[in-house]
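Annex B. Sample input.
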Amino acid sequence: MSQDNNQAEFQLPEVDKAAEVLDSLYAEAFFAKMAEYGHVPQTESDAYAMLETAAQLDAVDNDPAVKQAQEQGSPYAVANDSLKAVLSPQAGSNAYQQEEAIGVKQAAYALAQDPSLYASVLAVKAAEAEALSEVESELLEGGEHVS
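Annex B, continued. Sample output.
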C-alpha cells in the first residue's frame, strides 16, 4: 500500500472539530464525576455554569498569586481550601488517590481505542506544536537581529 493510500485512510480532523470532540469528552467526564457527588445540572444553563465555575476554580488553583497567598494565610486561600474539602471529601485519602489514578489510566486506554478521539488529540497536538514552532522561529529571528 502506498503512502498516499495511507494518508487517504487516516486524515486528521480540522483543529476546531478536534477541539469540540475533546471538549465534549471533558464535559462528559466532568458531569459523570459531579454526578458521583450528587451534583447533576437540571438545565443547559446549569451545565454551563458548572463548567464555567470549574474552569474558574481551576484557574484560581493554578494561579501563582493564589499559591503565594495560601502560604500567607489569605482568606481567599482558606476559602479555596474549604471548597476543595467540600467538593472532594476523600481527596486526603491515599487509597482514593490511587484508585482515581487507576481509573484515569483505564479511561485513557479505553478512549485511545476510539479512532475519532485519537485523531482529534493528534490534530490538536499538531496545531499546538505548529504554533510553538512558529513562536520559537520568531524568537530566534528576533534574537538574530539583536546580536
